[in-house]
Amino acid sequence: MADRLTQLQDAVNSLADQFCNAIGVLQQCGPPASFSNIQTAINKDQPANPTEEYAQLFAALIARTAKDIDVLIDSLPSEESTAALQAASLYRLEEENHEAAARLEEVVYRGDMLLEKIQSALADIAQSQLKTRSGTHSQSLPDS
């Protein structure tokens, strides 16, 4: 996962790409402008270009990317975040980490105890099966 500044830079680059693409598509699909002193032959039978649809599409993309950029900017640490506040936050995170580590150690210990019980039970079952099998074999052998 990229850090927030990298995400912000990627979003700004994406916004620049969207602006360039929007201008290119609108330039390509837009109707020609008429000039008063120049007569041009415009084919009136040309199919209608979906310029309005492109405009709405790019407007939505640009607005969403701008909103993402605002969210990323808001998630950056503020200038009011002093070294003391950051140290306190790190200390709190370290305490939470130690508590989580202690819980994890307890869970691992209980898991090891359960594993030993299961292994002991499996060993007892295996011994019982061996005794049962050896007992049936000795009974089925004829005495000489």
Automatic annotation (TrEMBL):
Any coiled-coil regions, as ranges: none
UniProt keywords, alphabetically: Activator, Nucleus, Transcription, Transcription regulation
Cited function: Component of the Mediator complex, a coactivator involved in the regulated transcription of nearly all RNA polymerase II-dependent genes. Mediator functions as a bridge to convey information from gene-specific regulatory proteins to the basal RNA polymerase II transcription machinery. Mediator is recruited to promoters by direct interactions with regulatory proteins and serves as a scaffold for the assembly of a functional preinitiation complex with RNA polymerase II and the general transcription factors.
A Pfam family it matches: Med21
Molecular-function annotations in GO: transcription coregulator activity
Xref: SUPFAM superfamilies: Mediator hinge subcomplex-like
Gene Ontology CC terms: mediator complex
Family statement drawn from the similarity comment of this UniProt entry: Belongs to the Mediator complex subunit 21 family.
Keyword Nucleus: yes
Cell compartments where the protein resides: Nucleus
Subunit structure: Component of the Mediator complex.
InterPro entries for this protein: Med7/Med21-like (IPR037212), Mediator_Med21 (IPR021384)
BP GO annotations: regulation of transcription by RNA polymerase II
Keyword Transcription belongs to the record: yes
Top-level taxonomic group: Eukaryota
Protein name from the UniProt record: Mediator of RNA polymerase II transcription subunit 21
